[in-house]
C-alpha cells in the first residue's frame, strides 16, 4: 500500500456520482407524492394502500437490512475474524422460514398497521403500550439492523466519519444531505416511496460492491490467488463446532443465537413487518420474504469476497496496525481509494453505495416510527380525526422523526462511545419482545398477566447481562481475532494517524478486578443475548399464565397460528375462508396502485369483533 500522501482524494466526478444518487432518490419521492392521486389516507401513506407486489418489497427488505454498517463493517469483520461469518447464510434461511410461516400468517390475516396492535387484540392495551414504547426507544438488536431514533443517529454518523477520515469527503455536508433527502422523500411519498427508493439503492449497493470485487480480482490476477492467500492466512475458518456459548462466533452461536436475534428483527420489528403486510396478497407477502432471502445471500457473498480481497491485498502490510487508518471500518474506503483511484467516479460510486445503505435504513425507520406513533399513540386516543387529517399527521410525524434523526447524528458525534454502549444494551430488548409475540401466537393459554411478568423478567435479565458485558468486555480468547502482519510495510510516512478509536476506550476496566461472573456469565456471546431474553420470557410467561388460570380463558382462533395457516400454503385452488385473499383472483394481478377490494371486508370484520375480544381478556 502506498503512503497516504499519494493516496487519491475525492474528485469532482465522485461528488457528481454521489449527488446523482441523492437526486434520483428525491425524484422517486416526488413521483409517489403525486402518482395515483397522492396519499389520501393514512393507510396509503403508511402501508402503500396494501397494493405492493412481491419483488420491490423483497428488495426493499434487503436494502433496509443492509445499512452502511454492512458495507463498511462486514468486510472488516471477515478481514479480522475470518469467514466464519458466512455461516449467517444458514441463519438467514431459518429466520425467513420462521417469519414467513409463524408470524406473517397471523399479522397478515388481521390486517394491522402496527405490529403492536396485535398485543392489544391478543392481550390488553397495557402490553401494547409497553411494546410501542420499547420500540420507540429500542434500537433493534445488533448494530447491523435498524430501528428507532437512537440507532438512526449512529447509522447516519458512523459511515460519514469513516468515509471522511479516509477520503476527505465532507462530514457534515454528507450527514445533512442524507438526512434531508431521506426526510424529504419519506414525508412526501410515504411507504411507496420508501420501497421504491430502496429498490434503486440496492442496485447502487450491488454496483459499489461489484466494482470493488472486480477491480480487486484484476489487481490480484485472478480469484484463485485471493482464495489461496485467505486459506493460508487462516481466513477460511468455516467449521468451528465448539459448543461453548461464550465463544463470540462459532457454528452454534451463529445458527442458534443468530436465528433468535434476527427473527426479532424480521419477524416482529415494525419496519420490516410493515412492508410485507403492505403486499397485495398473502402469497405476495410470503414470496417477498423468500426472494429477500436471495438478496441477503447475495449481499453476504459480496461482503465476504470484499473481506477476503482485503486480506489478500493487505496480508503483508495491514493498514490498521501501520496506523494508516484509525479504525477497522475505514479499511474498505482505504482499499477503494487504493485500487480505484485511477477511475474517476468509481470511489464516488462506492461512497454512494455506503450511503444508500444509510438512506434505506433511515427511511424505513422514519416511516416505521411514524406508523407506530400514529397507530398506537394518536389513533386510539383521538377517535374523531378524519382519514385525511391522519394522513397529514403521518406526514408531520415523518418530518418530525427525520429532524430527530439528524439531531441524533449530531449527538452521536459528541457522545459516540456512550451511544454505542446504549445501543448494545437496547439491542437486548429484541429478545423479550420476540418472546412476547411467540407467547401470543403459539400458546393459546398465555394470558395478559403471564405475558407481562415474562416480558419484565426477560427484560431485566437481558439488561443485567448486557450492562455486565459492556462494563467487562469479553477477553480476546473469547473473540479470537486472527493474526495481521505489518512485515511488508515501508513505513516512511511517520505514523500519520495516531488517533485511537474513541469507541473502545470508554469502558476499559483494568483486568485485575474482574469478578467471577465476568468470565462466564457476562462473556456470553452477544448473539445469545436475544436467545436468553426470548426463552426466559416464554418460560416465565407459560408458568405464570398456567398459575393464573390461563387454561380457562377462551382465545379467539384468529390471533393464533393454526393448522390451517400452515396447510393453506399447499391448497391454492379451493377458495378459502374470506380472511384469505388467495382465491382464483391471485393470478390476475391488479395493476399497481389500484385498491384491492378484497381487503375491505376483513378490516370491517376485525373492527366489529374488537370489543368482544377485549371483553374476553381484560
TrEMBL record:
Record's subcellular location: Cell membrane
GO biological process: propanoate transmembrane transport
PROSITE patterns the UniProt entry points to: NA_SOLUT_SYMP_3 (PS50283)
Regions crossing the membrane: 12-34, 54-74, 81-103, 172-191, 198-218, 249-268, 289-314, 354-378, 399-419, 425-445, 452-472, 526-548
Keyword Transport included in the entry's annotation: yes
Stored InterPro entries: Na/Glc_symporter_sf, Na/solute_symporter, Sodium:Solute_Symporter_SSF
GO molecular function: organic acid:sodium symporter activity
Membrane topology: Multi-pass membrane protein
Keywords per UniProt: Cell membrane, Ion transport, Membrane, Sodium, Sodium transport, Transmembrane, Transmembrane helix, Transport
Keyword set includes Cell membrane: yes
GO CC, one annotated term: extracellular exosome
Family, per entry: Belongs to the sodium:solute symporter (SSF) (TC 2.A.21) family.
Protein name: Sodium-coupled monocarboxylate transporter 1
Organism classification: Eukaryota, Metazoa, Chordata, Craniata, Vertebrata
Amino acid at each position: 500500500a502506498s503512503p497516504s500522501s499519494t493516496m487519491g482524494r475525492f474528485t469532482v466526478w465522485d461528488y457528481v456520482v454521489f449527488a446523482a444518487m441523492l437526486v434520483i432518490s428525491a425524484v422517486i419521492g416526488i413521483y409517489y407524492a403525486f402518482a395515483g392521486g397522492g396519499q389520501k389516507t393514512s393507510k396509503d401513506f403508511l402501508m402503500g394502500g396494501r397494493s405492493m407486489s412481491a419483488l420491490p418489497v423483497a428488495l426493499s427488505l434487503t436494502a433496509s437490512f443492509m445499512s452502511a454498517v454492512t458495507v463498511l463493517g462486514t468486510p472488516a469483520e471477515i478481514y479480522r475474524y475470518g469467514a466464519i461469518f458466512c455461516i449467517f447464510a444458514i441463519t438467514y434461511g431459518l429466520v425467513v422460514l420462521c417469519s414467513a410461516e409463524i408470524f406473517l400468517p397471523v399479522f397478515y390475516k388481521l390486517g394491522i398497521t402496527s405490529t403492536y396492535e396485535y398485543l392489544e387484540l391478543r392481550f390488553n392495551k397495557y402490553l401494547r403500550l409497553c411494546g410501542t414504547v420499547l420500540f420507540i426507544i429500542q434500537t433493534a438488536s445488533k448494530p447491523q439492523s435498524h430501528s428507532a431514533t437512537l440507532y438512526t443517529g449512529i447509522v447516519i454518523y458512523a459511515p460519514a466519519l469513516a468515509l471522511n477520515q479516509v477520503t476527505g469527503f465532507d462530514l457534515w455536508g454528507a450527514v445533512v444531505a442524507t438526512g434531508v433527502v431521506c426526510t424529504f422523500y419519506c414525508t412526501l411519498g410515504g411507504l411507496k416511496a420508501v420501497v421504491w427508493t430502496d429498490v434503486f439503492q440496492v442496485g447502487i449497493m450491488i454496483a459499489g460492491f461489484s466494482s470493488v470485487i472486480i477491480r480487486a480480482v484484476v489487481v490480484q490476477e485472478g480469484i484463485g490467488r485471493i482464495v489461496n492467500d485467505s486459506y493460508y492466512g487462516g481466513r477460511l475458518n468455516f467449521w468451528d463446532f465448539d459448543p461453548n456459548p461464550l465463544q463470540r462466533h462459532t457454528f452454534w452461536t451463529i445458527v442458534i443465537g443468530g436465528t433468535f436475534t434476527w427473527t426479532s428483527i424480521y419477524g416482529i420489528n415494525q419496519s420490516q413487518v410493515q412492508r410485507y403486510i403492505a403486499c397485495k396478497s398473502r402469497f405476495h407477502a410470503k414470496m417477498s420474504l423468500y426472494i429477500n432471502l436471495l438478496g441477503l445471500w447475495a449481499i453476504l457473498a459480496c461482503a465476504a469476497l470484499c473481506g477476503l480481497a482485503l486480506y489478500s491485498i493487505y496480508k503483508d502490510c495491514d493498514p490498521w496496525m501501520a496506523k494508516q487508518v484509525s479504525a477497522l471500518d475505514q479499511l474498505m474506503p482505504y482499499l477503494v481509494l487504493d485500487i480505484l483511484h485511477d477511475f474517476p467516479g468509481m470511489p464516488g460510486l462506492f461512497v454512494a453505495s455506503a450511503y444508500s445503505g444509510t438512506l434505506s435504513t433511515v427511511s424505513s425507520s422514519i416511516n416505521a416510527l411514524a406508523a407506530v406513533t400514529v397507530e398506537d399513540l394518536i389513533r386510539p386516543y383521538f377517535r374523531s380525526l378524519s382519514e385525511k387529517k391522519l394522513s397529514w399527521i403521518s406526514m408531520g410525524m415523518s418530518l418530525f422523526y427525520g429532524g430527530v434523526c439528524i439531531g441524533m447524528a449530531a449527538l452521536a458525534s459528541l457522545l459516540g462511545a456512550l451511544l454505542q454502549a446504549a445501543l448494545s444494551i437496547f439491542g437486548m430488548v429484541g429478545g423479550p419482545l420476540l418472546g412476547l409475540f411467540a407467547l401470543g401466537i403459539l400458546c393459546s393459554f398465555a394470558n395478559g398477566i403471564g405475558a407481562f411478568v415474562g416480558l419484565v423478567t426477560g427484560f431485566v435479565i437481558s439488561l443485567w447481562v448486557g450492562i455486565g458485558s459492556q462494563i467487562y468486555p469479553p477477553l480476546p480468547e473469547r473473540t479470537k481475532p486472527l493474526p495481521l502482519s505489518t512485515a511488508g510495510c515501508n513505513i516512511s510516512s511517520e505514523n500519520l494517524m495516531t488517533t485511537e478509536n474513541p469507541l473502545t476506550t470508554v469502558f476499559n476496566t483494568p483486568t485485575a478486578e474482574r469478578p467471577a461472573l465476568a468470565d462466564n456469565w457476562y462473556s456470553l456471546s452477544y448473539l445469545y443475548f436475544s436467545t436468553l431474553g426470548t426463552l426466559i420470557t416464554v418460560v416465565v410467561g407459560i408458568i405464570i399464565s398456567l398459575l393464573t388460570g390461563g387454561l380457562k380463558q377462551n382465545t379467539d382462533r384468529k390471533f393464533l397460528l393454526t393448522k390451517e395457516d400452515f396447510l393453506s400454503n399447499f391448497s391454492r385452488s379451493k377458495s378459502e375462508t374470506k380472511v384469505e385473499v388467495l382465491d382464483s383472483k391471485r393470478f390476475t394481478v391488479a395493476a399497481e396502485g389500484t385498491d384491492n377490494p378484497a381487503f375491505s371486508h376483513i378490516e370491517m370484520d376485525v373492527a366489529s369483533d374488537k370489543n368482544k375480544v377485549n371483553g374476553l381478556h381484560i
